[in-house]
Amino acid sequence: MNSRQILLSGLFLWIFAVLGTGFVAITEDTTRELIVENERRALLRNLHQLLPAEALDNDIATDTVEVPASTLLGSQQPGTVYRARLNGKPVAAIFNSIAPNGYSGKIHLLIGVYVDGSLAGVRAVKHQETPGLGDGIEVRKSDWILGFNGKSLDNLSRSKWAVKRDGGVFDQLTGATITPRAIVQAVKKTLLYYDQNAAKIFD
Amino acid sequence: MTTNSEITGSGLWTSNVALVQLLGLCPLLAVTSTVVNGVGLGLATMVTLIVSNTLVSLIRGFVRSEVRLPVFVLIIACVVTIIELAMKAFFYDLYLVLGIFIPLIVTNCAIIGRAEGFASKNPVGASALDGFMMGLGFLIVLAVLGGMREIIGFGTLFANANLMFGEAASALTIVLNADYGGFLLAVLPPGAFFGLAILIVIKNLIEERKVVASVASDSLPEAT
Amino acid sequence: MPLMSEYILLFIGTVFVNNIVLVKFLGLCPFMGVSRKVETAIGMSAATTFVLTLSAILSYIINSWILAPLGLEFLRTIAFIIAIAAVVNLTELVVHKTSPLLYNVLGIFLPLITTNCAVLGVALINVQDQNNFLQSVIYGFGAALGFSLVLILFAALRERVNVADVPKPFQGSAIGLVTAGLMSLAFMGLTGLVKV
Amino acid sequence: MTSVMVSSPYVSPSKSLRQLMINVIIGLIPGTLAYIWFFGYGVMVNIILAIAFALIFEAIALKLRDKPIRPHLTDFSAVVAAWLFALCLPMNSPWWLVLIGIGFTMIAGKHLYGGLGFNPFNPAMVGYVVLLISFPKEMTTWYLPEVISGDSLSLLDSLAYSFGFADIQQWDALSSATPLDQYKTGLTQDLAASEIFQSPVFGTLGGVGWEWIAGGWLIGGAWLLISRTINWHIPVAVLVGLLIFAIGEYISDPGTRASPLFHLFSGSIIIGAFFIATDPVTAATTNKGRIIYGMMIGMLIYIIRSWGGYPDGVAFAVLLANMCAPFIDYYTQPRIYGSQDKDE
Amino acid sequence: MIVAILTISLMAGLFGLILGYAAIRFKVEGNPIIDQIDALLPQTQCGQCTYPGCRPYAEAIANGEAPINQCPPGGQATIVALADLLDVEVLEPNDEHGEHHDIPLVAIIDEATCIGCTLCIQACPVDAILGSAKHMHTIIADECTGCELCLPPCPVDCIDMVPIKQTIDDWKWPAPVLSKEIVHEH
Amino acid sequence: MSIKLHEFHGGMHTEDHKAESLAPGLQQATLPAQLTLPLKQHIGDSNKPLVTIGDRVLRGQVIADSSSLISAPIHASSSGVVSGISAQPIPHPSGQCDVCIVIDVDGKDESIESQSQSQSKKIEDLSASELIDKIHRAGIVGLGGAVFPAAAKISRGDNLGIKTLIINGAECEPYITCDDTLMQNYASEVVSGIGYLQRILKPENTLIGIEDNKPVAIKLMQAAVIESAVAKTEVITIPTIYPSGGEKQLIKILTGKEVPAGKLAFDIGLFCQNVGTCVAITQTLEQSQPLISRIVTISGDGIQQPGNWEVRLGTPISHLINLAGGYKRNQSESQHLVMGGPMMGFSLPSDHVPVVKATNNILVMLQETIPFTPGYHDECIRCGKCADVCPAQLLPQQMYWEARAKNYERSEEYHLFDCIECGCCAAVCPSQIPLVQYYRAAKSEVRASRQALFRSDRARLRFEFREQRLLLKKQQDEERRRIKREALQKKNPKNPDTKTEVDPVQAALERVKAKKQSQAAEPKNTTNLTPAQLEKIEEADARRRAAREQRE
Ligand SMILES: Cc1cc2nc3c(=O)[nH]c(=O)nc-3n(C[C@@H](O)[C@H](O)[C@H](O)COP(=O)(O)O)c2cc1C
Ligand SMILES: Cc1cc2nc3c(=O)[nH]c(=O)nc-3n(C[C@H](O)[C@H](O)[C@H](O)COP(=O)(O)O)c2cc1C
Ligand SMILES: Cc1cc2nc3c(=O)[nH]c(=O)nc-3n(C[C@H](O)[C@H](O)[C@H](O)COP(=O)(O)O)c2cc1C
Ligand SMILES: Cc1cc2nc3c(=O)[nH]c(=O)nc-3n(C[C@H](O)[C@H](O)[C@H](O)CO)c2cc1C
Ligand code: SF4
Ligand code: SF4
Ligand code: SF4
Ligand code: SF4
Ligand code: FES
Predict the structure, then answer these.
(1) What confidence tens digit (pLDDT) does each residue in B47-102 have?
(2) Is the same domain home to F416 and F273?
(3) Structural domains counted in chain F
(4) How far is the centre of ligand 3, averaged over its atoms, from the C-alpha of F141 (Å)?
């Protein structure tokens, strides 16, 4: 009697589990491709902010290379670099870099570098800077971060890679110097990294 | 038997999930920094409520009592997962914004509460209506709270409408005053609590006025 | 393998800085609902701490040993909630059998924990942040302690506020929410303590 | 003969609530004067504006709550709260900043809970913190002390500034971060303490001017103690709590850490210890509890200052400790007469 | 898809087994909370709460079927006590169920009119009425709970409810009352 | 020899205002025209009158008594005729009336005691229990304020064994000087009273605590101790700090011990009695004079001539006011009449109330010196000054918070019932909150709800008993019907399988059941009645008879 009841309960739940999971699995099956496509598109949209779609013709989302951890990229983990090519020739590389010394911690950046070492663009992907002060680095909030476009280690002497207060060329955000300072340094380091490893990145 | 208007009234007002039962607070406070986020999650929750209420009501006749709760949980989890998959497929950007709070609809106590308290005792039609009304009540609060916080915090309304309705909807965004610097408190965590408190107070005040009014109208015939 | 100090930072960060309730907005229903008396708050805290830690472990195992190898990540929510319900139920059983006294204290809170989003939330965040086993455990335990900390402090505050001369429309949940808001205001002072 | 029943005792108390608040106001005067001396009339404008707004808010709240207005307005608690709030603001803050802050101080901080005596959180600190997180730009723009900048606003300019008639840019040259902010900025840049203290804003003990202001608070604090407005427990515990950390850190790493004296004499430690942490309404009330509460504030200040996101943690430390006060009170009940331990 | 179904259904099946086992092995008998609630009710047994006595009401509360504000004899104090026990919000007393008397009432029989029909004896839930057939009845004031159940059956309406006599020993110190008109003066 | 003094927590210094009433020395009050003697002037059970209207009574005659142990009889305090036994205003904080015996004084002041004295043994030969009996019959209650019947207290102390006898001459409250005057005038009586207490209680030592603001009394008492033969008795000068005269505080000062919470002094071998009580004992045993008078201080800013009077119990306070030269002000609204000291006394509604055993002081305060404004006080700002002065080491602010919100149970958790109502907290509260009134109200409420709980528990028992009885009755009816049916069936030959043999167990069970039922079927609830209930039934029966007679 007891065990029969137990079995019944188990069976009942089991049936519902089978039915429920069945439906979920069917849904998953039908949506899988859409979802993968969505994820790819979201990634591309981010990358295309830095590089116009017409500048490349390869599948940048899959044309990647793993680079080992490097202090120049601010990360202790190996990172992924996306490679853009046009007609098979390298156009640019996009780095996931981290500025470790933001006001409230790490600032995750996406930095696009053309093969010639000039900047395609910089975006702050994830950060915890103070709303109203440090968050001016988001494109949504201000144009500040667009100021990097086109800069390179060649067209700007190394000492000028700093915020204006420190004698450089980059504006600071009103009331928040630390955040820009951190980003400027991170970008500069990423360019240095590219300088040293350009060959490895494009094989 | 509960009448349809009673179900409507209780879902939208007298037993409003958010204002009265104080359930589903996590998404309520976490995702309401803008109207669009609020509505997005509200819709997902509403769909879950309708579907789970309907299913539970359908099977209410033959569920064994000792596995009733697990079966309900299972059903709700499946519904939510399906919705999650659908959102990923069709509203991917909105899904990214709402993030973890979509799967967390499973633990929204309001849903299991309705399954237990209403759907398992009522016919399908009433249960579905109850799910709809409860969900709508929740949705409205999410939207209003989102609107409040968005206006005060950013000075905009319907920002990011494109997340839900596609790029064309970007035009929906209303910027109330371009010079408005924003009152950040409203969009930060404390603002969420304050905002909900304000909504509850407004509801209390309305109730109070209703009581006063009904007392006044009660005493009227005696006076004349 | 991260350093010891990182584990400690993760722990402190989870308890105080990224408090599960006031900053992450999880577990708010029990936070608002079971905070009228300090004693019940303590009971709820103890029960939640146990279940949360255990389910963090279990969900890690389920995810990395079953779901990930089989490519069934989309079933995560279902699998986790089943596991959580099982943990809650088992806890209830074990406590009931071994310690009636403890059961008296915790019993009524246990069923409520299944619908505490902090429990499922922590399991999901662990996956999202790709935490390893130890990190998952620390995160689960830290989140539970953070939950307990603010719940008990909140209950003590509410006991005081309940006897205050609060204006009528604010009495009850409204003033509770205002208090919670002020608590989260205070907790904002701890931001930046642990840099992530 | 006796028309209304009143209960014993039939003796007048030695001190009234109003007297207590007046004592606090008297205690605030030396420090406030020093503040005005170094930073100009803007400070005074802030204080006056804050008090005026506070009284208006208080009167409105009392009216709405159907309470007698005159006795509550004349207990001066609103004046104390407004004054302390105003002292946290950057000088020459725009009027709307003061208004919003005082609104939160008096309404969310005080009257939602039932007014004087019922609020669990320090109202002035609530108002200040709301502003700090909502308007970080406005709230972190401070002005150089007159002795450094050699320039300051006249009373008229300050007023004009406050009410938005004067252009902000005009005075930008005078603006700067507070010494603590600079110190913190330096720390994030991994600078050594000696490098940080190169800046002209630093004086011998703390920031230029700030040392004297802190001295003023110290005099006021002594007055509060002498006039028995406050007990010694909380201020002493706050200072001890802070110094435990400050001295420990300084000894272990004198190169990068500021001296304990710098910590004491810059920012709002002294006023915090004597005037803010001691707000009786929001502090712990048992003697043992007061010591725990004070130590907690002291330590939190240091923790937030040194490792957290804010240059001066007093407000947050006080609010965090307020949050714990009922709990502390509950578990530090004194042993009552005739019992061996508190629960028996 | 098969893997998915297998995985989850295995987990669910296992879980169902455990639950089924639990439901039988650890069935909880009775509900101690009912006793605790019952202990807080005034035991007037008057039925004004719409339940046939205090215990049924206690059961209804424990099952979540009745709100805690339906007992007029208990008044606000009982509501507060119940709210405290059950950890729920304090409610206003529901006037629909009757009025709370600050000074409890007791029944008194007009002995000159009483015909000794014993109907009231049968109605009294606490045996507070003494007497036998054809003899006049008396109410033991100390035992009378003031439930008024004896009033309707009496054919000659000889039972009245009167407030309990207050003595100096029952006197309660009044708490200070605050009024809004008074202006501070010393 | 000298002992080390200890300190109690808290307490406060007050302006003592004692000189004014001390100056004139002890005066004898004249007899009033009427004496009003409340039936109950002590803590414990009520008395019943032993006289009826029209009776002539003599001084010292017992006019009301009770059979209870915790009670004290009332004596006529002068000779005269009983003119009323009715509710009269009495000195009570409620301002309510209670039953009093009113005597029209004839002025002869004849005493009753002459015959009885001759028969009794010499005091030296009396046993302890005989002494206690005499003290009981003299109606002596503690005159330090608690008015607990002295005989009950002493016999309890005697049973428990006393190590230290403490005599309370502290008189710590401002204005009051009756004990000071008493010690100055009756030092030797105090000491011989101590002697009797020592005979009964056999303590190891005796400590007389007197505050250092009464140098004359201290000197006289020391002299009296040396003069008399009492052993191991010492007058201890204690610092002047209110409330050093509180029993628990005095014990702490003199012995360093604390009376455990919820216990009484004699649980730790201590026994505390007021000096006035000692004098009353002496007067009873040596002069056979029951408690019919006491010393009352009249003081305050509103009285013409403050002083101390020896007053017959029952004397209207208005009479005393006249003796003291009357009020300073004419309008009654501008002054405030208090019985007791300013710290612990209570307001009197009028001066038409009598002096009772508890009356140690009559205080006429000017209205403007009363600190509390009725209807308004500031809110508690949690400054903790009250906790600093609370001699019971409580947290007055917490008790107040909970009491104010009518959370009486929580107040109780903060040890409400350990509050001795000394008033220190309210006296220092900057918000001028009438804290003590809140505590008194809270205590009343808690007591009332305990009473209600007691009643409801009893009601539940009775209800359940009745339910059971009805159930049994129903079963019994059914049983009877079944038996009848079976009997019918037996007669019917168609049913052969009817049992003829009776199962013995079944039969026994049935017998038990039947017995229970017969018990239950008895006229209900006339068993197990308390004497009071029986009394009521009797009364009702009497009324019924009367009613029937009237009808016939
Ligand atoms: C509450 C608060 C938040 C702050 N947040 C930031 C921030 O997000 N980013 C930043 O660079 N500085 C931040 N700061 C520090 C700046 O105010 C700091 O003084 C500034 O970075 C350097 O000053 P300057 O720009 O005036 O030279 C913050 C300061 C405070 C008090
Ligand atoms: C058997 C016995 C019971 C007593 N019970 C009480 C009591 O319930 N309440 C009381 O105040 N005093 C009681 N007393 C008297 C105390 O011992 C003590 O004299 C008195 O409480 C002191 O009161 P005071 O300090 O408040 O004036 C009792 C004495 C005896 C002998
Ligand atoms: C606050 C307080 C102050 C007291 N002060 C005195 C006092 O000054 N003198 C005194 O004899 N009793 C005083 N009593 C009463 C004593 O506690 C105690 O009841 C009395 O000494 C016992 O003696 P009795 O039974 O002879 O009255 C005081 C009680 C309290 C609570
Ligand atoms: C010693 C003392 C310190 C006070 N400190 C503060 C304070 O820091 N902040 C504040 O808002 N009010 C303060 N007040 C005023 C008052 O207590 C406060 O407004 C209450 O919190 C309002 O309920 C203080 C009062 C005193 C007597
Ligand atoms: S109303 Fe109250 S007293 Fe009457 S039966 Fe119901 S619970 Fe009992
Ligand atoms: S006598 Fe009447 S009122 Fe009293 S308990 Fe019995 S039935 Fe109720
Ligand atoms: S009256 Fe009670 S609470 Fe107040 S000081 Fe005296 S003992 Fe303490
Ligand atoms: S002295 Fe008065 S204001 Fe101060 S804590 Fe006590 S009750 Fe509150
Ligand atoms: S919604 Fe998070 S706990 Fe209820």
Answers:
(1) 999 999 999 998 887 777 667 777 888 889 999 999 999 988 888 888 888 878 88
(2) no
(3) 3
(4) 12
Q: What is the ipTM of this complex?
A: 0.86
Polymer length in residues for chain F: 552
Domain harbouring F160, CATH code: 3.40.50.11540
CA angle D187, D192, D198 (to 5 degrees): 95
Three-class SS of residue A105?
strand
The answer to which of A193-202, C109-118, E111-120 has the lowest mean pLDDT is: C109-118
Mean pLDDT value across chain B: 84
**Structural fold of domain E101-167:** Alpha-Beta Plaits (3.30.70)
DSSP tag of F141 = B
If asked whether residues F443 and F514 sit together in one domain, one would say no
CA distance D254 to B210: 68
Element (H, E) at F169: strand F164-169
Of D259, C28, F17, A147, the residue nearest B104 (C-alpha): C28
Class of the CATH domain delimited by E32-97: mainly alpha
Least confident of A172-186, D204-218, F448-462: D204-218
Same domain, F290 and F184: yes
Strands F34-38, F97-105: parallel, antiparallel or unpaired by DSSP?
A: antiparallel
- Residue F452: pLDDT over 70: yes
Q: Find out whether the peptide bond into D9 is cis, omega within 30 degrees of 0.
A: yes
* Contact yes or no for F407 and C160 at CB 8 A: no
Asked if the structure places residue F331 within a domain, the reply is no
Task: Please state, in angstroms and rounded to a whole number, the distance separating the CA atoms of residues C48 and C68.
Answer: 27
Beta carbons of B82 and A24 less than 8 Å apart: yes
Q: Flag whether residue E29 sits within 8 Å of chain C, measured between CB atoms.
A: no
Place of tokens 């950040």: B184
Q: Given an 8 Å threshold on Cβ–Cβ distance, is C163 in contact with F379?
A: no
- Cα F126–Cα F132–Cα F138 angle in degrees, nearest 5: 105
Closest CA to F490 of F478, F481, F499: F499
Cα F296 to chain centroid distance, Å, stands at 19
pLDDT, average across residues D118-136: 94
Judged by a CB distance cut-off of 8 A, whether residue B98 touches chain C is no
Of F280, F297, F323, the position where a domain reaches its end is F323
Q: Where residue F49 falls among pLDDT bands split at 50, 70, 90?
A: very high
Round to whole Å and give the CA distance between C143 and C147.
6
Contact A153, A198 (CB under 8 A): no
Residue ranges per domain, chain A?
1-50, 54-201
Pocket test for ligand 4, best of D19, D75, D121, D281 (most atoms within 8 A of CB): D281
Distance CA E97, CA E94 (A): 6
Domain segments of chain E: what residues? 32-97, 101-167
What confidence score (pLDDT) does residue E151 get?
87
Whether residue F459 sits in one domain with residue F540 = no
Range of the domain at F513: 504-519+530-551
Task: Give the C-alpha separation, A79 to A101, whole Å.
Answer: 19
Which residue has a Cα nearest atom 16 of ligand 4? D77
